[in-house]
Write a structure and sequence with these properties.
289 residues; nine-stranded mixed β-sheet; binds Dihydroxyacetone; 2 domains; binds zinc ion; elongated; disordered C terminus
Length: 289
Amino acid sequence: MKVLDAKFVKEFIKTTELGFSLGWHERNGGNLSYRIKTEEVESVKENFVAKEWQGIGTSVPALANEYFLVTGSGKYFGNVKENPEENICIIELDDKGENYRILWGLVNGGRPTSELPSHLMNLEVKKKIDPDYRVVYHAHTTNIIALTFILPLKDEVFTRELWEMATECPVVFPDGVGVVKWMVPGGKEIAVETSKLMKQYDLAIWAHHGMFAAGRDFDETFGLMHTAEKSAEILVKVLSCAPQKRQTIQPDEFRQLAKDFGVTLPEKFLYEKEAKNLNSEKELEINVY
Ligand code: 2HA
Ligand code: ZN
């Protein structure tokens, strides 16, 4: 089968198109990776032509000998649908999980995404927890980024605020969301910090940069990113209208929701907020968040 006829490739391309249409992928912003199933590799491997081995920049032994479909470094999401062979590639890892080689795609040259260490380390962490996890998606989600300038960079605060702004959120991401303080992107250090959070969460925010989502398939992963970003948009809108919320979902109401929807919401996110007081800026800061 031709690579572009494979269902997983079509879904990958559709995901890049959806993200671009929502404005999360200016220029070469964002990247996407998919850990390809064995039978999917079999179905397209007749097209593979191996290039030379290159270092990943980190080590992912639990992903040794696996195959991935990834976006290209410096490539634009907005171009993927029209010219997939130029902008995405299939890579293979060596038997140590330390080197990769391109097997298909990037026909005019190039490398896999600059965030390959983060993608692979996240995929490795997720595979160890649940082998069905296959997708990692990084997007420059505008409203989540905006909130990283005004909310404390704490998992508890971002989780609680995103949960409050849309009732579906605690059901869609009951484990919560993690936050990585600002770090230089593209390297092993930020990959290590992100993958630590991915042991606990399916969503990790990069302060002043964007977000990573992980999931079992493209719909689930994209939907997760979309849900969190929509919730962030509502909070940005609310805070643009008024300095604080007049009413919101309360901890006991979350507990009721958890019971009815059969999810477990960790108590660390259901902290009591202090009484609102608009007279002092300091108190406002504490009270709103
Ligand atoms: O691919 O988004 O984080 C460009 C980026 C780097
Ligand atoms: Zn980025």
